[in-house]
Amino acid sequence: MTLIATISPAAKQTPQTPPIRSEYECSLPVLEEIGAEQMLPLPLAQRLWRKAWQNTWLRKTSILILLALLWEAAARWKQNDLLFPTFLQTARAFVQGVASGELLGYAASSLIVLLEGYLIGIAAALLLSTLAISTRFGRDLLTTLTSMFNPLPAIALLPLALLWFGLGKGSLLFVLIHSVLWPLALNTFAGFQGVPETLRMAGRNYGLGRIRIVTQILIPAAMPSIISGLKIGWAFGWRTLIAAELVFGTTSGTGGLGWYIFQNRNELYTDKVFAGLAMVIMIGLLVDNLVFTTLEKTTLRRWGMQRI
Length: 308
Description:
mainly alpha
C-alpha cells in the first residue's frame, strides 16, 4: 500500500518577505567649537582645593571647625558663662586640665575600666554566638536571653549592681558587660547566619571541626557584622560607664570622667564640665577613626569584604 502525500495550494505559495523600510538621514546639530581658552587646565589653586577636599580628614576637620564657630557664636549671644561657656573658655579649661594631668588621669581611669568590661563582653558574646551557630539549644538560649535583656537599659541595673558588688569596679564591670554583650552577640550571630552554606561545606570537606569552622571560616566571613557590633558595643559601653560614674559621684569620691564632670558641676565650674564632655567626645572620635578604621583596613579590605 502506497501513501501519497498531497500538498495544499496554500503550502505551495512562497512566504512573503517583510517590507523594506526606506533609508533616511538625520542631521545632527553641529557642536559649537571649543575655544582655546576653554581647553586650558584648571588654575593651580582650584586643583589644589579639589585634591585637598578629597581628603577625609580635611572634611571632618572642617565640620568640627564649623561646629566650634557655631558654639562660640551661640555662647556670645547667650552671654551667660555659668550656663553656657564659650568655646574659647572650654578650650582653655581643657588645655589646663590636660597640662596639669588631672583630666588625663580621670580619662585613663575610665578607659582602664572600660577596656576590662569591653574585653569580657566580647569574649562572652563570641562564646554565645558560637554556641548558637553550633547547636539548636544555643540558638534558643541566645534568642531568649537577648529578647529579655537587650531592651533593658544597663543603667537600670546599677542599683542591683550596687547591692551585689558595692561601690567599686565590680559594679561598673557588671553594667559594662551587660551593655556590650547583647548587641555584639546579636550582630555576630546575624553575621554567622549570613555566611553562605557553600563555605561551610568547603570547610567540612577539608576536615575542619566546629571550632575551626568558626575561627577560620565564619569569623572572617562575618567580620563586617562583627565590627558593626564592636562599634555599637563600644558606644553603649562608653556612655554607660560615664553615666554610672555620675551616679557613683553622688556616693563615692573616686571615679573617672563621670566623677570629674559631677564634681565640677557641684562647684559650678561649667567650663570644666564642658571640658570633661569634650574629652569624652574626643576619645570617642579617636577610637572610631583610629582603632576601628585600622581594624577595617586590616580585615575587611584585606579579605575583600568591603569596597575600597
